[in-house]
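Subject: two folds for Thursday's group meeting

Dear M.,

Sorry for the delay on this. The cluster queue was jammed most of the week, so I only got both jobs back this morning. I'm pasting them in the order they finished. Each block is the input sequence followed by the predicted structure tokens. Could you check whether the formatting survives your parser before we put anything on slides? The first protein is the one we discussed after the seminar.
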Amino acid sequence: MTMSCFIKGVLLADTVKLVAAETGTLIDKRRPSRTEGRLRSKGCFSSAAFVFATLIILLPNPLHAITLSHADVLKIGKKIWQNECNGTIAGLTSWNTGEDFASLGIGHFIWYPKGRRGPFEESFPKLVSFISKRGAKLPTLLLGTGEKACPWNSRKEFLQAQHSTEMNQLRTFLADTVDLQAEFLLARLDNALPKMLAEAAPSDRANVQEQFERLTKTPQGCYALIDYVNFKGEGVLHTERYQGQGWGLLQVLEAMHATSTTDAVNEFARAAKAVLTRRVQNSPAERHESQWLSGWIRRVNSYNGG
């Protein structure tokens, strides 16, 4: 694979086999990665190309595209919808207590009100752009040029609008585009590997890529990867660590060492449970994270059908 072909794949993303540069962060409300921040900053295309060229140099082997059928993508989307929203239409439009943004769609993509920004990257407008470019009809609320701000300025306003025409149209739109939302998540997963390899120690990069590729060879493995990176992030941010230890996808892949494709998902689930348990053990007492561990474990058990 030549550098020009790889960058073209990164920048265009015309199918679910390619990397979508426009995808944003998802659940676990991550901050933008260092690489993402550089790409969003003001600068010329050559700067972006330099970043991607640098990441390519770090790759132990050429990347292979993740290939899934539409049926498999839709199946994964429905599983994530169940994980995040209990599979309900109402759950597609949420605003959690204590947060200053709406969480929408199967991945609970973040949408800030006008003039509001926080430590977490906004991903819902990127999802809307992704879906629009694939020809889906947008609800009136999302029509027009440029990115739209969330029209509800607070959780109170959001809850008061639960039965409004705008909210009902938004829910219908999200329920009708589960497959495209899943494609968006898949594209974001493709984009995660170069970032993880850039963060991993040089001696670990070949194993991280091998474990990633073991999992991408089956639909169930792809589901595990997509859900976990949506759930707990890539694991590349030093700010998302307790006592120097992270809990993202990178840390799970680093804990895997086997080579068999048939046992890849089972090993991933075991490694993920160990990483999440370590997170709780390392977490500050005031965060009371032990209350969440059993739910996290149940979610990870879904990766291998347990």
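Second protein, same layout:
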Amino acid sequence: MLRLAVTTQAETFERMQAPLADRGIEAVGVQPEERIFSLADPDLPDVDVGFVYPSRIMEGGVVDAVLDVPWVNGRESVLRSRNKADVLARLSDAGVAVPETTLVSNPVDDDVVAAAAEHFDPPVVVKPNSTTRGTGVAKVVDLDSLLGVTDYLDLVHDYRATGDRSYLLQEYLPDARDYRVMLVDGEYVGAVERRLPGGARERGQWKHNVHRGAAAESVDLDPELRDLAERAAAVLDIDYLGVDLLVTEDRAVVNETNARPTIDSATKYEDGFWGRLAELIRTTAGE
């Protein structure tokens, strides 16, 4: 049986074990105990292929060196997807629709930030370039609020989501529907719409992250939106990818991507999802 290294013990690992075992692939948890292990005797299991590169890049380099296996999503894929500005620049250059975005790389003076913000109609979204789960993302309606947020970013550069000292100014798309589209080997395999609970907007909540209380409900995505997500995966050349779309009445844009997306319950994917994922893992192992 092919042995697959999985570097997370969260939902994805738990959900993939049985379906992959039915297809001849054993998912093996690979995570150093308490994140501490001897380089002389790392005590990692024997595996044939890795799923996605560890989220902590420095730790991942050690794990990668010891395992010495190909990854479905390797280091470059994870780093590329994590750099939001990189992703949006690549997609825009390839003609894939993205939100209007400006990258700010600290340190910069307030007047530089103010000048950059003048290109946007308020409100403006401020987003750390490497954040996940909506951490540190803010919506501001005036210059003082914007500069207050960027002051805080100046103070927390050593936090992991802001350690690259860059953030995005991005247009706000009111009333946009938020979709997470999953792709395996560049092809659509399912999508969910992330919806806020009743009354959330009235209370001022606007982020659609599941970890912030939104619910992910399976949807039958329109063909043109499937195509948009597939085009994004092709541009980025990432085999296992979550693509986040924001869709209004007149526009659809790729907002972010995730090269370490959580696998949801099987009911939210197309028939054959697990078979296609298993085939991608086997192909990667063969390479």
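Two things I noticed about the second structure. The chain has a mean pLDDT of 87. The helical segments are 11-21, 57-67, 75-82, 84-93, 110-117, 143-155, 223-236, 273-286.

Cheers,
T.
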